[in-house]
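call fold(seq) -> tokens
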Amino acid sequence: LARVKQAESQVTVLQSKARFEAASANLDRTRDLVKLNSSKDLIAAESSFTAAKARFSEADATLKRTKKLIELGAGAGKDLKSAQTMFETAKAELDVNENNVNKIRDFIKIGGGRELTSAETEYKTAKAEYDFQKNISLSKNLQEAEGELKIAQVDANHQKESLQALGVNVQ
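ret:
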């Protein structure tokens, strides 16, 4: 009966170890996917930001050139208004793209979202269960061994007393 219980205890420990190892692998895989997806998103956002910077520089240069032409009397007011609108639009687009890049960088810094948090929670839970099952199994085995030792000591003392009662000198 004790061997059956010990075998069941070992099976429980092995099952919790398997769940722990699966959760650990899932956490590693989730971290890798978050980094990969975030890196792709960052590359795309940085590309859009670079394009927006180029459009802003072009709109800024056009606005400055148009203002200069108007000062010299060679430009029209509608050209200035158009250049001003292009400048403001390009500036807004630049700000939006810069904000996107910063958000993605922040997301990468904090480790990326709910999937990672869920995988970390699953990992911590599985690790706690495995550690508990491992320790309870060891404690149970230790208690059983201590019990068997006490029984053996009682048997040894009983045998010693029986031999002494028969007149045998036992040390």
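Residues 2-71 form the longest helix (70 residues).
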